[in-house]
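Hey Z.,

So I finally got round to the alpha-D-glucopyranose thing we talked about over coffee. Here's the setup:
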Amino acid sequence: MRILFVASECYPLIKTGGLADVVGALPGALAAHDCQTRVLLPAYRGVRDGLSKPRKIAEFRGLFGGNATLLLGRAENGTTIFALDAPHLYDRPGNPYVDEAGDDWPDNHLRFAALDLVGAHLARHGAGRWRPDIVHVHDWQAALVPAYIAQSSAPRPPIVATIHNMAYQGIFPADVLADIRLETDQYSADGVEFWGRINALKAALVYADMITTVSPTYAREIRTPAFGHGLEGVLQERADRLVGVLNGIDDAVWDPQSDPHLAASFSRFKMAPRHRNRIALQEAFGLDADDSALLFGVISRLTHQKGIDLLLESLPLILERGGQLALIGTGERHLEQGLRAAAAKHPGRIRVRIDYDEGLAHMIQAGADALLVPSRFEPCGLTQLYALRYGAVPIVGRTGGLADTVIDANPAALAEGAATGLQFSPVTAEALGFAIERAFELFADAANWRQMQLHGMAQMFNWDRSALVYSELYRRLVDGGQVDTN
Ligand code: ADP
Ligand code: GLC
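And the result:
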């Protein structure tokens, strides 16, 4: 079976978060289930350079103010990539969504409409002899593909849309409708219209044959107003087409036995060297060389979603109990400032890097005693899965994929040796504080803590199972059969 992915990120070519990890790893795992995937990506600055053996396979003239070339090449990890090279849209500094000052690119509607028009073209006509049997679009940046495909009644492949985050919907003023080549009758309550504006994500929810999201709990949550960000009604209507498929992790990229970023390799059968990574982490961040402190790690976008304000409120408690914190992240200015101020006041105990650095993220996972993920909502979350694999005990809000992947250290779970981390609910500063207190108590009992680490490291969160689920879903769609959403 041939699958066309359309997405705005793909590790290792371009990454700002978990979407890239998923789009980068799932094709490799799908190959084991007889699914050959090609990923359509914008050729941002950097993506072109990262492609091996790119060749031109098509041209698109007059694509929103310039000409574009479609390149076919491979990413370093072997994934086959269609890169849409449209310099007037993508050859810019900054990240895929925002300029260097952190503001959205003003032409984002055109940048991703261009990607999606080409995605719809590939869906119908393929490239050379290659034609997709399934089109799989990811998040709002790819969500107009089904809307463009719906503009014609010609035969088409089935469409799967995956929601990685309901909080980002791609909302644009109604008057760009014609500019992005949507039809007037698509601007309706059962089309892309959303409170007088255009909502790109809604297009995918309305026009796709199957909607998936990245954990079973999030699939339930987003049908409620608290998590649906205004689209809960649409999702309720399409509940028979909505399924949660838990993400996996790329266990070749995230493997403490072979990770090139670590000071020492380790595994659950050989834990002693892990300590060297703890020392290396303290050194790299400039934390006091303290062997007994409970060392918390955080690797996160600094946003309201991720509960970083709750973490700021909990810093006095961590300090009071003699803990340490190593954090890496970028995001909202006031959170960056709050973290910087705390670090300046308590050097040696709190250190933050306002930066994005893949290597340091790996070092934190390998060296921290615990990883804090106080998210208010979390569609899946990957950092807690990496933490489990690396022996950093995850402390998470009980929501979305965090609830589905961490087994709380309650007395029963501890007695059975089943615990892998700590959960807290509701996601408030107070409940986070209790969880942190609980972590200090558990950490004081070294044997118990080690048991929790080892049990976490024994969990299997690789892509095998999820790739099987996706491949079965594709097959049922291609065969025109029913899709089971339970
Ligand atoms: P989200 O996609 O919502 O940001 P996930 O937990 O799914 O959250 O994925 C985040 C990914 O981005 C992980 O691979 C994590 O290691 C990485 N990451 C986040 N912030 C940073 C950072 N500042 N430096 C390096 N990697 C980061
Ligand atoms: C989004 C979500 C995150 C998820 C990731 C990959 O960025 O915020 O929870 O793990 O997508 O699906």
